[in-house]
Specification:
The complex is a heterodimer of chains A (205) and B (661). Chain A has 205 residues and is of the alpha/beta class. In chain A, 30% of the residues lie in helices and 22% in strands. In chain A, a hairpin with a 2-residue loop joins strand 7 and strand 8. The longest helix of chain A is centred in the N-terminal third of the chain and has 24 residues, at 16-39. The termini of chain A are far apart. In chain B, the strands form 4 sheets. Chain B has a 22-stranded antiparallel barrel. Chain B has a 5-stranded mixed beta sheet with strand order 1-6-7-4-5. Chain B has a 3-stranded antiparallel beta sheet with strand order 11-35-34, with no helix packed on it. The chains are: A alpha/beta (205), B mainly beta (661).
């Protein structure tokens, strides 16, 4: 087969509808331009797509959960006893979690504990269950029973399995799922401010 | 299709000067933008933000993809949505340039050759391509019409590229590899998305998408997309401008805890100009050409039901209908395909994971023959029945995974075929994977290889025809692979694979008389080569991704059989740089080198793509993309089979606005 081709003097004109597409595009661009100008005044809120941006953001969520959940007074021996956040299994947060230990919540310092087994979970006020450990969710729930421990996970539909809060990734943003049934079995009180930002996957208010 | 030995290597100083200038320009841009990096506006302390603000922040998920890849005993590469966004790609083949070892060549504005480990061509017959489980490989001429596979890139969740044979799981024609394009679930695309853009080559494009929910368990999305692309450069004037519109949607229903149902579909319509040349008996060129607008349209509907019995125990049923229509001077094709697939996965004691399935497909065509290209019969139904069984056995505390499986496939052209494989994977530590495979895969002859006839040349007295062969056999491959993946530390990882493939019954041509050549599947092919891909997080805001591949092909055939050669690059290399200058500004640069294609007289080339991205607020992204910046224009491939005018791809710049709300 050859690639030889003859000179071809005939040109082609665009069909009529191509012109109207261009016009439609021009019209569509106008509101976008205005939106763009408006947006310049808005505070940028996109986290760099850095190596661990996802878990830097998730650790800020854990800090906020501590602010919006009330533990019964009997949980802490004194008014300055620190609040313990535990990570069960492989720790995906890395140093991001240590950053929030510089903060305090209602006068209490934050302490991070990394657990290998389910044994010590009752000593925690908040328990993050890493994805690999979610196979033993049933056992964790059984161990905790009615203990005031806020459980958190971040895998699709893990709240449906019995964990209280799920930090779900949707379109590069985090959305929260809450298993209200699981929360209401314990003496924990969750602020309505937090509840209204979550999708309730089990239970009613 | 004669063996051609054309050497054309242009190594002039001019080009090196352009490379240097390009680098200097890139440096200048970074110097200008860097001061902005010093005054990052967003507080680094996220704990100072409230919950609503936190929920508005966008991040990329890194946790999703890495896990399964490390436990796959094949040369797999995953392109994520984030990779696509940062590549500045405007079509799926452009995005595939990121995969190491694939050879992606743009033939003209709308035609592409995409291959893995050899056998390049617009009709690259050994690469299987699926979109959400629906095959888009055309049995007419064996290959993929890439121009009509143009879903909105924003809908794609990931593209899995398997280099090397995958017949057992993927089916026939996955001889050299498989590309699986997987779109997002509807619940992952809520709200509205608008993208608008335009530039010198990508003249204008827009995508509109809306996603929502019905009740608690049903989510859906709908989209519309349109674009117009400029013509390329051709010796005698080019006519390959291209425009297309596409619409579709997807609905996901979580019917209880154990069942999920997906319904999805698309419809597209478009036209593209081309200049096709036909043989004549009039010298001196014995060729005439005609300018035409080829018209293409098509649609598909797919339904999938998955029932989960428990962990690692599920059943999936899938059904689809696909219609394509293509009308050009050389031929017209209307094809209807119906496909049903059932798959069942269950665990057995001793850590075994069994998958088995059956599938049936009917693909019927109606063809309009032309003087230059004809098929006899002009209507034919191709049937394929397949069943497969695969067992993955975990041994030595899951450090070793042994996978054995086989697929039996019965088809209209060559009857029953068996495609077995054995895969062994060993994790000496959680950061390292060593794997090896032995595979047999088949390619079913195309409709043309069996039933076709094409006029390929003119002489003063008669035409020379190439005729199909009703006895054409399935190409059979035995492939051997070895691979190693390692995460050296938290910043450095790499993935490498080497292979040796031996093909029997590759396609060649035998001269029957002065005016007739016939296809004979008697060519034997040996290929070997390797790929290396790495990722280095040099700084928290700067990542580098180098890739390199080598391919050697040797073919042999009995006396009198001619075959194609020299259409694949021996060496390919690329380097991607991804920089987050601030929390909102990204600068991404890709350099690539593709070796010469001596068989069709295409010289080697190197080029650079640059993307500048800015996200002034959480829902808005503005980007400026430059493609092929080093040269005014360059050739990447030459058309074969259906002989359209040879084209050169131009430098292109476009701007794009993406708005989510």
């Amino acid at each position: 087969m050859s690639d030889r081709s003859q000179a071809e003097p005939r040109g082609r004109s665009l069909p009529a509808w191509a012109g109207s597409i261009r016009a439609a595009l021009r019209v569509a661009l106008m509101p976008l331009g205005i939106g763009f100008l408006l947006s310049l005044s808005i505070e940028p809120a996109v986290l760099a797509t850095e190596a661990n941006g996802e878990y830097r953001l998730k650790s800020a969520f854990l800090y906020n959960f501590a602010k919006f959940v009330e533990w019964p007074d009997s949980t802490f021996s004194t008014s300055s006893t620190p609040l313990t956040i535990c990570v069960l299994g492989n720790d995906p947060f890395g140093s991001n979690l240590d950053v929030i230990t510089e903060k305090a919540v209602k006068g209490r310092a934050l302490v991070i504990k990394r657990l290998r087994t389910v044994g010590g979970v009752k000593e925690c006020q908040m328990l993050y269950v890493s994805p690999n450990e979610l196979t033993q969710t049933a056992e964790i729930v059984r161990t905790l029973q009615k203990a005031p421990v806020l459980t958190v996970c971040d895998v699709e539909s893990c709240a449906e399995e019995g964990v209280m809060l799920n930090m779900r990734m949707v379109e590069n943003r985090i959305q929260l799922d809450m298993n209200l049934d699981a929360v209401q079995r314990t003496p924990l009180k969750v602020s309505s401010q937090l509840i209204k930002l979550t999708r309730i996957v089990k239970g009613t208010q | 299709m004669k063996p051609r030995r054309i050497t054309c290597q242009r190594k002039n100083r001019e080009r090196r000067l352009v490379v240097l200038l390009g680098m200097a320009f890139a440096l200048l841009v970074s110097v200008m933008v860097l001061p902005a990096a010093a005054k990052a506006p967003l507080s680094n302390d996220l704990t100072e933000l409230n919950l609503e603000e936190l929920m508005a922040i966008e991040v990329t998920s890194v946790s999703k993809k890495s896990q399964p890849v490390s436990q796959t005993a094949s040369a797999i590469f995953v392109i994520t949505q984030e990779d696509i966004r940062r590549s500045g790609a405007n079509s799926i083949p452009e995005a595939l340039r990121m995969a190491p070892g694939l050879h992606v060549a743009r033939i003209d504005s709308q035609k592409w050759s995409v291959t893995s480990r050899g056998f390049s061509g617009r009709f690259a017959d050994d690469l299987l391509v699926l979109i959400d489980g629906r095959t888009v490989y055309s049995p007419l001429v064996a290959g993929v019409f890439w121009e009509v596979q143009d879903l909105p890139l924003e809908d794609i969740d990931r593209i899995e590229i398997i280099r090397g044979p995958g017949g057992t799981l993927w089916g026939a024609n996955a001889v050299n590899g498989a590309v699986h394009i997987i779109t997002k679930k509807a619940k992952e695309t809520p709200g509205a998305l608008v993208t608008v853009g335009g530039g010198t080559e990508e003249r204008a494009f827009t995508t509109l998408r809306y996603g929502g929910t019905i009740g608690n368990s049903v989510s859906y999305r709908l989209y519309g997309k349109g674009f117009e692309r400029d013509r390329t450069v051709s010796a005698n004037g080019s006519h390959d401008d291209w425009r297309m519109g596409r619409t579709g949607g997807r609905l996901d229903w979580d019917a209880g805890a154990q069942d999920s149902v997906t319904l999805q579909g698309d419809y597209y319509q478009g036209q593209a100009g081309q200049q096709t040349s036909f043989p004549t008996m009039i010298g001196p060129s014995f060729s005439t050409s005609a300018v035409e607008d080829l018209r293409m349209s098509g649609g598909n509907m797919l339904g999938r039901w998955k029932h989960t019995f428990g962990q690692q125990h599920d059943f999936t049923a899938q059904f689809y209908y696909d219609k394509t229509r293509r009308d050009e001077l050389s031929f017209k094709e209307i094809r209807n395909t119906v496909d049903i697939d059932l798959q069942h996965r269950f665990p057995l004691p001793l850590g075994q994971d069994i998958v088995w399935g059956i599938g049936y497909r009917i693909s019927g065509d109606h063809l309009r023959n032309s003087e230059s290209l004809s098929f006899d019969p002009a209507e034919r139904r191709l049937r394929t029945f397949s069943m497969f069984l695969q067992d993955e056995i975990k041994l030595f505390q899951e450090k070793v995974r042994l996978t054995v499986g086989a697929k039996y496939l019965k088809n209209t052209f060559t009857g029953g075929l068996i495609q077995p494989n054995i895969r062994l994977l060993y994790n000496p530590s959680p950061d390292q994977t060593i794997w090896a495979t032995v595979t047999r895969s088949n390619r079913i002859p195309s409709r043309f290889e069996r039933d076709g006839r094409q006029t390929i040349a003119g002489t003063p007295t008669e035409f020379v025809d190439l005729q199909g062969n009703p006895a054409a056999q399935s190409e059979t491959l035995w492939g051997y692979e070895l691979g190693y993946r390692a995460q050296l530390d938290s910043t450095l990882s790499f993935d490498t694979a080497v292979f040796y493939n031996r093909y029997k019954h590759s396609s060649g041509e035998q001269e029957i008389s002065d005016s007739l050549e016939q296809i004979h599947t008697t060519v034997t092919t040996h290929t070997y080569g390797g790929e290396l891909a790495g990722e280095w997080r040099m700084l928290s805001w700067w990542r580098l991704r180098p890739a390199f591949s080598y391919l050697h092909i040797r073919r042999s055939a009995p006396e009198g059989i001619e075959f194609e050669s020299g259409e694949d690059p021996a060496h390919q290399a690329s380097l991607r740089s991804l920089m987050n200058l601030t929390d909102t500004i990204e600068v991404d640069t890709t350099f690539r080198f593709v070796d010469r294609l001596p068989g069709i007289g295409v010289s080697n080339y190197q080029n650079v793509d640059i993307r500048l991205g800015w996200r002034p607020s959480s829902g808005l992204e503005i980007s400026l993309v430059g493609h092929n910046l080093l040269e005014n224009r360059h050739a990447e491939f030459k058309p074969e089979f259906i002989t359209t005018a040879a084209s050169q791809i131009q430098r292109g710049v476009f701007g794009k606005v993406t708005w989510r709300f």
